[in-house]
Amino acid sequence: MKNEQVLDINQAAELIRQAHQACEDAYAPYSCYKVGAAVLWESGRITSGVNVENASYGLTVCAERNAVFHGIGLGERRIKAVAVAVPLEEIPSPCGACRQVIREFASDCLVLLSNGSGEIRKTRLKDLLPDSFGPEFLKSI
Ligand SMILES: O=c1ccn([C@H]2C[C@H](O)[C@@H](CO)O2)c(=O)[nH]1
Ligand SMILES: [Zn+2]
Q1: Does the pLDDT of residue 99 top 90, yes or no?
Q2: What is this model's ipTM?
Q3: CB 43 within 8 A of CB 68
Q4: Domain CMP/dCMP-type deaminase: where (predicted)?
Q5: How large is the average pLDDT for residues 78-93?
Q6: How many angstroms does the Cα of residue 32 sit away from the middle of ligand 1?
Q7: Where residue 72 sits, what CATH number does that domain have?
Q8: Number of folded domains in the chain?
Q9: Coil, helix or strand for 82?
Q10: What residues flank ion ligand 2 with Cβ within 5 A?
Q11: Does residue 121 belong to any structural domain of this protein?
């Protein structure tokens, strides 16, 4: 049940810092809504990502998914926590697609949402995506 563990305060601060730092490189020329995300894996590694928009709007990929996919490509499989940061007043909230992608690698995990003033909303994947569908459902097939 490692996913249920509470994060060390320094790890949480570092995760949020990396999400904010990533946010600076977000590519969001159409929405101008820049997002940075950082994922803490069970290994202790942190990967980050930004939203990448496209002139063909539907090809846009969120910061959260890019941060997760970066870790998967490095061999990571278990997410411990995710931080999402925006440089605005409104605290961000991951979209449904990103919640489901995080769910693939964590049945539950800490989710830290931070705005431009450094305010933090602390929540959990289970609260953001209740009664979720995940890999275990396919194990009996
Ligand atoms: O949690 C979120 C919400 C939105 N976006 C991106 C997608 C798009 O580029 C822009 C506006 O939706 O923000 C993210 O990266 N993460
Ligand atoms: Zn998303």
Answers
A1: yes
A2: 0.99
A3: no
A4: 10-136
A5: 98
A6: 10
A7: 3.40.140.10
A8: 1
A9: strand
A10: 62, 95, 98
A11: yes
